[in-house]
């Protein structure tokens, strides 16, 4: 039957097997989620594909682009490491087996330079134990070949979202620390007592100051910390898992 839109359906993409590796098969993609594009979310947007077979790099770049995710391919781990394209890197899809450096070797070098973007390993059945070890070493996940386009792209988007969430959490933590740094020594003392649930009179007695002075300090603490009351203050500081002791 003729296509109502007047365009013949595009044939499914099928990549051949690769000897020691499995090929990539394509099935129809799920509809694009309205919020999927990293650029729409303000995330670092480029997924870097490190694989020594061009057909795999091109296929993955096409699949990612079809979901609004720009990608760049690298023919070797050495080329990727030499270019250091991490500033805009949202995620790395990294083949386990390559001619020069293996995927795990590239991953270890990235870790030696700091905290790398999320890394997803591509692995054949025989390499699954290697990929599992990479997970234990901090990789985001691995995909066993053959894989579907939906699986690999959805996993990449999940990794991108996780990286963005971690970045947002770090930014919020830095902002919180900056607010704490504006508190005077006395305001810190008052804040600690507020967090224990002490009332103004109890704080005044503990610190040997007037209740009116406590009220002024409490007001300044809440204003500087950007909260309206002691409950919000406690919730704000409880979310900061890098510092302890504010309540003691």
TrEMBL record:
Domain HTH luxR-type: 176-241
Name under which the protein is recorded: Two component transcriptional regulator, LuxR family
Region (Disordered): 1-40
PTM annotation (4-aspartylphosphate): residues: 95
One biological process term in Gene Ontology: phosphorelay signal transduction system
CDD domains cross-referenced by the UniProt entry: LuxR_C_like, REC_FixJ
Source species taxonomy: Bacteria, Pseudomonadati, Pseudomonadota, Alphaproteobacteria, Rhodospirillales
Keywords carried by this UniProt record: DNA-binding, Phosphoprotein, Transcription, Transcription regulation
PANTHER family attached to this UniProt entry: DNA-BINDING TRANSCRIPTIONAL ACTIVATOR DEVR_DOSR (PTHR44688:SF16)
Span of domain Response regulatory: 46-160
GO molecular function, one term: DNA binding
Superkingdom field: Bacteria
């Amino acid at each position: 039957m003729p296509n109502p839109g007047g365009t013949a359906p595009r044939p499914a993409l099928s990549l051949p097997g690769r000897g020691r590796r499995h090929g990539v098969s394509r099935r129809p993609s799920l509809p694009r989620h309205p919020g999927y594009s990293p650029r729409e979310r303000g995330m670092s947007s480029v997924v870097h594909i490190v694989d020594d077979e061009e057909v795999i790099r091109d296929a993955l770049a096409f699949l990612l682009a079809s979901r609004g995710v720009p990608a760049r391919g690298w023919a070797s781990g050495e080329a990727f490491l030499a270019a250091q394209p991490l500033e805009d890197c949202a995620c790395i899809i990294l083949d386990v087996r390559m001619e020069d450096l293996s995927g795990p070797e590239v991953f270890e070098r990235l870790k030696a330079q700091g905290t790398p973007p999320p890394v997803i390993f591509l692995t054949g059945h025989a390499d699954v134990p290697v990929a599992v070890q990479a997970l234990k070493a901090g990789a985001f996940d691995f995909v066993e070949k053959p894989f579907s386009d939906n699986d690999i792209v959805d996993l990449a988007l999940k990794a991108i979202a996780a990286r963005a969430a971690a970045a947002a959490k770090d930014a919020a933590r830095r902002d919180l620390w900056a607010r704490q740094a504006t508190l005077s020594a006395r305001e810190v003392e008052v804040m600690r007592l507020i967090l224990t649930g002490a009332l103004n009179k109890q704080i005044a007695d503990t610190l040997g100051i007037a209740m009116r002075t406590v009220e002024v300090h409490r007001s300044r603490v809440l204003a500087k910390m950007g909260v309206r009351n002691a409950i919000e203050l406690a919730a704000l500081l409880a979310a900061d898992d890098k510092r302890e002791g504010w309540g003691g």
